[in-house]
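Prompt: For my understanding, could you write out one protein's sequence and backbone structure tokens?
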Amino acid sequence: MTLVLGAMDGEVAAIVAGMDVDASGEWRGFPVVRGVISGTPVVVSRTGVGKSLSAMLCQHLIDEYAPERIIFTGVAGALRSDLEIGDTVIADDTMQHDMDVSALGFERGRIPYSPHRFFTCDPALVEAAMAVDPPHGSVHRGRILTGDQFIADPARREELASTFDGIAVEMEGASVGLVATVNEIPFLLIRTISDHSDGSAVEFEKVVAFAAENSWHYLCRILENL
């Protein structure tokens, strides 16, 4: 079984609408939908925004359904000028850019007193995603950064890109990556660019709906090839 997650209802709406649904329910107010995509059993849920909620729900669903793999999808802000709104970003790895205990000598992004800094996506899932022809725009591959901040400042965008070699930034991927890593479950992080992380105007709701359709396109093709 594959666990499919997105932070907001809009990020998973097209997935739920397109899948063959077997059962729908909820846990503590979070929707949980079971069914099939491309012949593969799936559980789909909206985690809520941010690292704490996404980690909490991911662990609960692991305990409840014991998935073989986890795919987290949705929107992200670009950290590089060559990424355009609507482009797809597939993570090789992810990290928490706002984990900063450098005052005690730890590298930024390092969880103190642990081996955890970078969370590597499953190479087979990454290759499966890279083999998909995007319905729109370009595909980029690299490091996606995670933090409990919506980045909307050009100087901050440049600092994150240069310090961590990140190509996109969002608010849940590394927390789910941490949970997946500790539980030894392969995971994939795939995002659609929604903005340029610089505060410029964007029709966010329209981009989220577009991103959900993009996620559906990728999910169908990745899962049918498993």
